[in-house]
Each structure stands twice: as C-alpha cells, then as structure tokens.
Amino acid sequence: MAIKIQTPNGQISLSNDVIATVVGAAVTDNYGVVGMVSKNLFRDNIIEILRKENYSKGVVISQDGDDIAVDVYIFVIYGTKISVICQNIQQAVKYNVEQLLGFELSYVNVHVQGVKVD
C-alpha cells in the first residue's frame, strides 16, 4: 500500500518503505530510544532491534481519506521519562515528514514495547 497525495499537477504516490525510512530516522535520533522493534513483538516473542533496512517492520502507516496516521513501535532505556520521549518522537516525526515528504500527518502514535535495563 502506498500513500497517495493529490496535487494540482497530478498525483504523488509514496511507498511505505520510503515513509518508514524517514519516520525511523526521526525516531532513532531521540535520546532515550534504544531502537525500533517489530510491531509483532509479542507474536514473534523475539526482541530484535531493527536496522535501517527493516524500519518498515516497526512502522505502520494508514490513510483514511485525507487523514494519514503513523504508528511506531520502540524500545526505551530504563531511567528515562517515557512520556517525554514519546512527545519528542511525535514532534520529530511530524516535522520530518512535513519537511522531507511534503504532507501532514494527522496522528503519530507511539507504542513502547519494552524497557532496556542494564
């Protein structure tokens, strides 16, 4: 599935992998984030930090008319304030998608899948 955006000059189609790469880079640049994990963490029962080429496993993109929502699945460091990390991720993802891809996100939902304890 791809996100389709209608412009005066025609239609733009962005694949999920492109959006997931931009979103994944914005997420992993935040302090307190260990990395992104698979959205099917509990089904797979394996905790694996995703690399750049697999960011699409930890990002879910959905479009309902003009509303575009992104769900990200992350792993955080113990001792950090999770609510602040999630707010920073939401702001960073919205900003990067607007600046780099040229469309606005309606929602950025952050799902914390676990906490890394040293």
Automatic annotation (TrEMBL):
Q: Which family does it belong to?
A: Belongs to the asp23 family.
InterPro entries listed in its UniProt record: Asp23 (IPR005531)
Name assigned to this protein: Asp23/Gls24 family envelope stress response protein
Q: Which Pfam families match?
A: Asp23
Superkingdom to which the source organism belongs? Bacteria
